[in-house]
Amino acid sequence: MVRRMGLDRETLLIAAAELADEAGLDNLTLSALAQKLGVRSPSLYNHVNGLPDLRSALAAYCMQHLVDLMRDAVIGKSGEEAILSLSASYLAFARQRPGLYEAFYKIEASDSPETTKLSEQLLNIFIRVLEPYGLGEQNTLHTIRGLRSFLHGFASLEQNSGFQMKLDLDESLHFVMRAFLKGLESGA
Amino acid sequence: MVRRMGLDRETLLIAAAELADEAGLDNLTLSALAQKLGVRSPSLYNHVNGLPDLRSALAAYCMQHLVDLMRDAVIGKSGEEAILSLSASYLAFARQRPGLYEAFYKIEASDSPETTKLSEQLLNIFIRVLEPYGLGEQNTLHTIRGLRSFLHGFASLEQNSGFQMKLDLDESLHFVMRAFLKGLESGA
DNA sequence: TATAATAACTAATGACATTAGTTTTGGCAA
DNA sequence: TTGCCAAAACTAATGTCATTAGTTATTATA
């Protein structure tokens, strides 16, 4: 049952992610990808349903990375330490894989069962990590929205050179996160 | 010196912004814009230096709106009230003009003297509004990075249907902002 | 009214994505 | 080993873009 010859979806995705990281998601074209893979571009349609499907697949691929990374980041940690570790990992990933991260946040809308499932897994990590704060259901969800917004916004501004100031990025992250968590503790 | 006939840059930008709002920035093509304006697409080059220039001009146009809006939002207000008002205005704008907002954050890098100037104006509004908190220079800048990240991330997730949960968006905004500001007050 | 500048136009090119139809190839059953 | 079938590659063609070059029309002003 296993095809030995030619491409498979996995290697195609890996190459696509590399291209996106190198040149930006906008420059990930089927032409360029085909060329990188030593193939004519219509051949890619045997593995991927056009450019939209490729981008959606990249988003899922990215989310899978993020889930693994973030689970790893909180092992053996709890409370503030866990949240800070998780945040730092998130931003480090966005820095290392800018094109892949771009694919993730330019889809975001759960456009496939796979991304929906991964979204839930991400959500659950946040919920678990916030348990020690005892915020209650509603406020936990508000808090998660806050954390996701902040992390995504920070990553996005970083990518688009939105931070011009000569000021250490990690210090900014740390300062802001500590302030927010302190506000949470003091009972919002 | 004033040309009476035909297009000018202003009406072109307004039409472009409308198109972007209706169909998303990706679907703002020179073809579509020309058609909307009753003109052939090469004619647009008399007013705009290709698509990249158009998008950059839209970004500046958006920033000008934002500066005006945010200045207006804090008139007669100070402290927490001013910051909450400013945040709400920012998000309201992103909701109302999604395509225009997209142009803004997909450029962001100060790619022209105009956007650089507008960036500084935006920055100064934040600085002024944070003065009552007496955070000192460094921490003020960290805080501004936090606010910008959060607001941008929130707007971006909202636009990409990143918030699936049945949970009021304005309440999330309010909860998160209050927690953060509380954390700031308690001396980070 | 004639001229110079401006802004529209047509035509052409090249990069894409995508589709249809054809050929090649490799696993598997006889 | 041989022949078949399905998968995956290919070529050819189409249509949509952005962009450039070169041409025509129009308007303000001298």
TrEMBL record, chains A, B:
Organism: Paenibacillus rhizosphaerae
Lineage: Bacteria, Bacillati, Bacillota, Bacilli, Bacillales
Top-rank lineage group of the source organism: Bacteria
Full protein name: AcrR family transcriptional regulator
Residue spans binding DNA: 29-48
GO BP field: negative regulation of DNA-templated transcription; response to antibiotic
Record keyword Chaperone present: no
GO molecular function: DNA binding
The HTH tetR-type domain, residue ranges: 6-66
Sorted UniProt keywords: DNA-binding, Transcription, Transcription regulation
InterPro entries named in the record: Homeodomain-like_sf, HTH_TetR, MT1864/Rv1816-like_C, Tet_transcr_reg_TetR, Tet_transcr_reg_TetR-rel_C_sf
